[in-house]
Write a structure and sequence with these properties.
Elements: H1 10-21, H2 26-35, H3 38-59, H4 66-84, H5 108-124, H6 139-149, E1 154-157, E2 159-160, E3 170-176, E4 181-187, E5 198-204, E6 213-218, E7 225-229, E8 241-247, E9 262-265
Antiparallel strand pairs: 1-3, 2-9, 3-4, 4-7, 5-6, 5-8, 8-9
Amino acid sequence: MSDTLNPLNPDQLELIAGHVLDDLSDTEKQQIGEIWNDAVEAESDSLHLTAASIQMIFDNPPEMPDDLRRIILTDAQAFFAEQRVSPAEHGGETPAATLALPTPKVLRREWVAWLAAAAAILLAVGSWIGNRPSQVTDAVGLRRALVAEASDLIEVAWSPGKTPFPRPVQGDVVWSNEAQEGYMRFVDMPVNDPTQRQYQLWIIDPARDDEPIDGGVFDISSTGELVIPIHAKLKVLQPVAFAITIEKPGGVVVSTQDDLPLLAAVPSTEA
């Protein structure tokens, strides 16, 4: 037999998995001894790590995103279909494979062999198993973190402005002066054409200036619930309101506020 096993075929992978699980028969032990080389040893080490990771998952299973679950189950179906269907077994013709999930009769070693491939998928999509990023990078997660951690959080709901939308828009603004960070949340905000008009946030802060602070130009590309970060151009001292205007593409330095569909007023803290 050739000393080079690259790539290892499914039968060889199953033998290695049996070696990892210590359930080889005497005949199988002889077979794996005949094919043992550096490639087999490396695969064996990899499967040992995979088996340990699998045990950790079973002991403390994390929540798996639905999309990732579907990808892994689909790949599992394909893997086992390939193991059980061959042209030689069907008169030289390959039958249509029935992609059914493996039953309890499937050998444990086959699961270990397949999960080694699944582990590669998990690593490719961002190391779902362990070592996940400690900092959330999406706006929804960042907003949630700010709400949970900010001791000076301002949270106010949107209400219709002087030129309200035809249909009500729900949502709110959250802001922290200490962090100088905030987010706008919209539900059913009308989609805009950025070549014709754009939304612009204004932060009304009389403690700083008579003119509102530019909070950033943004677009709404889809209906439903969206979270948009606030990009204040100046330091905010004591906001009393947040306003949305509709402006020309690129926004403006000073708004006429002729088209102001949304307003979020901060309740007064004075007795």
